[in-house]
Amino acid sequence: MSKETPRVVFVTGGNRGIGLAIAKSFASDGDLVIVSYRTGTAPDGLVGVQMDVTSQESVNDAFAEIESRYGSVDVLIANAGITRDGLAMRMPESDFSDVIETNLTGAFRSAQKAISPMIKKRSGRVIFIGSVVGMMGSAGQANYAATKSGLIGMSRALAREYGSRGITFNVIAPGFVETDMTADLAEPLREKYMTQIPLGRFCTPEEIAAVVKFVASPGASYITGAVIPVDGGMGMGH
């Protein structure tokens, strides 16, 4: 590793998509990166830990494993999330509650476990991966939008609680990102979305990772309680 004292960076849901790009970005800088995955195995070249954010026991076990093998987490990127899209009037309650449990409560569980050691060290970074829809809303995503809005309120509450301990809490709010999910969009729908983006293209996972890495850097030590959009101007800073 290039760093004399690499940080322990934990990326939840870091086995694919945006999470994987974030994990690889930190690893390339010499940080000790651990990614969580619910099923399967860790990506090649990265340390993995199995964790289901919907289970408190699973989260407890994952953090205990990380701390026993590598030490406490210095940087937490709470990225794990799911979608269950549908119009509100037809949305089963289970689709609403499952998304809340994973995206919002799961992020809280992860942050809660990371905070205590950070308090003792009087330093730490917690970064939640939100979404532009948390500020703009999105038809068919009442559940998902609610969780991403919730991350903002939670992050700001935590920033007020633990700022005096040197811990920062921020939300990165991506717009449309080039992932497997957006790659499957029908071309007419893709073009419709493009018209809403002033920069005229979708973001790459690597562009999200670059912003996350900055927010975790010493240069961002005075940024907390912030919502940082990476959306090509789609939300215009909402």
Q: What does it look like?
A:
With about 240 residues, this protein is of the alpha/beta class. Helix content is about 45%, strand content about 15%. The chain is built from eight helices and seven strands, in the order E-H-E-E-H-E-H-E-H-H-E-H-H-H-E. The protein has helices at about 15-30, 55-70, 95-120, 135, 140-160, 180-185, 185-195, 205-215, and strands at about 10, 30-35, 45-50, 75-80, 125-130, 165-175, 225-230. The chain has a seven-stranded parallel β-sheet, sandwiched between helices. The longest helix is centred in the middle third of the chain and has 29 residues, at about 95-120. The N and C termini lie far apart (about 40 Å).
What would you say about this model in short?
The chain has one domain: Rossmann fold (3-Layer(aba) Sandwich). Helix 1 (17-28) packs across helix 8 and helix 3 runs parallel beside helix 5 (142-162). The chain is of the alpha/beta class.
List the helices and strands and how they pair.
Blueprint: E1 8-11, H1 17-28, E2 32-37, E3 47-50, H2 56-69, E4 75-78, H3 93-121, E5 124-129, H4 133-136, H5 142-162, E6 167-174, H6 180-183, H7 187-194, H8 205-215, E7 227-230
Parallel strand pairs: 1-2, 1-4, 2-3, 4-5, 5-6, 6-7
Helix and strand element order: EHEEHEHEHHEHHHE
What would you call the shape?
globular
Strand arrangement across the biggest beta sheet: 3-2-1-4-5-6-7
- Main sheet summary: 7 strands, parallel
Estimated helix fraction = 40-55%
Number of strands: 7
Our estimate of the beta-strand percent is 15-25%
